[in-house]
Specification:
two-stranded antiparallel sheet; binds acetyl coenzyme *A; 67% helix; mainly alpha
């Protein structure tokens, strides 16, 4: 790739022109997008598992309906994202293969167990809250198909965040036992939610280049700070305590400063050694195998229709 090609491409990005599938693009740009969109799609799909686990145990019919809808939305997000990645020349089969073989990454957050109903509240509030903070700027990503997919995804994520916060609010206003359950879920999900934003900027391998290409609009640390600053008052409002004794509000910057993140834990989870990594891949494989007949039937149906059209 010549210097001239790279600088012409950069100039398009700098003019805020959207890059579309058939446009010429540097190989590194394409690779970065395939990696990020693929990991993002896998996260949506694997993210259905910890919550799907609670559908049969939701405490009321109303809660069950909301949770079912949310989990189905996550499946839909995975599909938009796989389609967006396919516009870059990678196939859905190949991406699925990489996920099931354990080769592809997906968000660290989905490797933690959902132990109580309050975890469903904490996931909606914190995990979907963190996802929105990260994904709103992706609506302005330089790659058109990814940016457009993110618009609907973010609208749905915002409903997910509210349903989670509402569960936490109901528990926090409930009996002492229910309040304790909510606090325990916040204690367990707080730090893993902060890890969703990725390593500190100094350690972020792709951050700088992705910001220059306007794939990412903010750095990992900037988004983490914004998330903390939005979420701490929400915890206070419902009478829960964020489990970080070093949390401090900096009046000058208007942001919260947080205590040290356990990067050893983060690395262990990302490299496959979190509490639930093996279970998640096993369950995903099982779901894939159980769905084989649907894929076969759909292909047979499509072949039959194609044959009847040609005669
Ligand atoms: N979990 C797993 N892996 C992670 C995480 C995480 N929380 N954070 C960073 N990583 C990985 C990166 O994928 C990268 O690995 P790779 O080089 O093998 O691909 C490595 O750690 C280094 O990190 P960065 O250089 O900072 O990576 P990047 O610039 O891609 O930033 C981020 C990471 C912020 C997650 C970015 O990819 C992104 O915004 N992705 C889209 C959003 C997304 O995937 N959300 C998923 C969870 S939300 C949901 O599904 C509800």
């Amino acid at each position: 790739e010549s210097e001239e090609f790279l600088s012409l491409f950069q100039a398009r990005v700098d003019r805020e022109e959207k890059i579309e599938p058939n446009d010429p693009m540097p190989e590194g740009y394409r690779r970065t997008l395939v990696r990020q969109i693929g990991q993002h799609a896998h996260s949506e799909i694997v993210g259905m598992l910890p919550e799907g686990n609670w559908i049969t145990r939701a405490p009321t019919l109303r809660r069950k309906i909301a949770l079912l809808a949310k989990v189905q939305d996550e499946g839909g997000h995975g599909l938009y994202l796989y389609s967006a990645a396919e516009t870059l020349g990678v196939s859905r089969e190949q991406m699925t293969e990489e996920l099931l073989s354990g080769k592809a990454k997906y968000s660290s957050i989905f490797n933690y167990p959902t132990l109580t109903w309050a975890d469903i509240g904490a996931i909606g509030w914190l995990v979907d809250g963190a996802a929105i903070m990260n994904q709103i700027p992706l609506c302005r990503c330089s790659y058109g198909p990814y940016a457009r997919a993110m618009i609907r995804v973010c609208k749905e994520e915002s409903f997910h965040q509210r349903q989670g916060y509402e569960i936490m609010m109901a528990l926090a206003r409930g009996s002492d036992e229910q309040k304790e359950m909510a606090q325990d879920a916040l204690n367990r999900w707080w730090w893993p939610s902060l890890m969703m934003f990725g390593p500190h900027d100094g350690e972020s391998a792709h951050g700088e280049q992705s910001m220059a290409w306007k794939i990412k609009r903010f750095s990992n640390d900037e988004l983490r700070q914004k998330f903390i600053t939005a979420t701490v008052p929400q915890a206070e409002f419902i009478g829960l305590t964020v489990p970080d004794p070093d949390l401090k509000f900096n009046a000058e910057t208007g942001l919260y400063e947080h205590g040290e993140i356990d990067w050893v834990e983060f690395k262990a989870v990302v490299s496959g050694n979190g509490r639930m990594n093996r279970d998640r891949i096993r369950d995903r494989k099982q779901a894939h195998d159980d769905g084989a007949w649907v894929r076969e039937a759909a292909l047979a149906h499509a072949a039959k229709r194609a044959a009847s059209r040609t005669v």
